[in-house]
Amino acid sequence: MMLANKLRLTGHELKEHIPFTALGAVTGVIFMLIFKNLSHASSHTLFAIFHPAHVLLSAMVTAAMFKMHRKQTNIWIVIIVGYIGSIGIATLSDSIMPYIGEKALGLHIPSHSELHHHESEVEAADEHLHEHMDNEHHHEEHAPKVHLGFIEEWYLVNPAALLGILIAWFLPKTKMPHAAHVLISTWASSSHVLMTTQNEITFQIAMSMLLVLFLATWLPCCISDIVFPLMLTDKPIEHTH
User: Fold this and answer.
1) Burial 42-77 (b: 16+ CB within 10 A, else e)
2) How do residues 88-102 score in pLDDT, each as one tens digit?
3) What is the pTM of this model?
4) Are 97 and 216 in contact (CB under 8 A)?
5) Alpha-carbon distance 157 to 178, whole Å?
6) Which CA distances in Å does 8 have to 79, 125, 156?
7) Reduced to 3 states, what is the DSSP secondary structure of residue 112?
């Protein structure tokens, strides 16, 4: 019966979180339109702000939910659950799922003007070989890829997770609106798109990204905040709201 209760609660929570997750996705598209002209470096900076913030909030909620609904536990178990639940799922939400959406929509394909410019460079290769090689090296450095924050910004992301876990350990009943988690997660995902795409954000792309951002936020955030910690509990649970 406990498993059935957990599954029922999971379905209820996923349904309840649809409205403001959809609203969060809309703010993510607006975010992309506002910052669409930023350089790669500036978009990277946005990701380095919102992704650790997402991890912090996720670690707080995941560890607190687990601690409050577990009969017996210790800080090391809470650290493991909080770290996996925040780093793993935030990476899925902010990096992996947006990247899959970007690839599916062809956002990494160079524009016609970029292809024409590349062909011109090839034709002039004999005269500008060294310069061409430097440009290729620069392109490889900024080639679209899944940006793994806990590895590439380990000094920001991992401490953020540990800080969130410690807050949850000492202050497990600290109120953190789930809506704030959703918004921060959506903006982190949007930053990843801005950091890796080479295309103009047209109306069609914006509408497609609306769905990508919704899915990238809805399932991972609910899993991180609710499903993952509660599936590991050992006592009956009620609705989290």
Assistant:
1) ebbebbbebbbbbbbbbbbbbbbbbbebbeebeeee
2) 989 999 999 999 988
3) 0.78
4) yes
5) 20
6) 27, 64, 36
7) helix
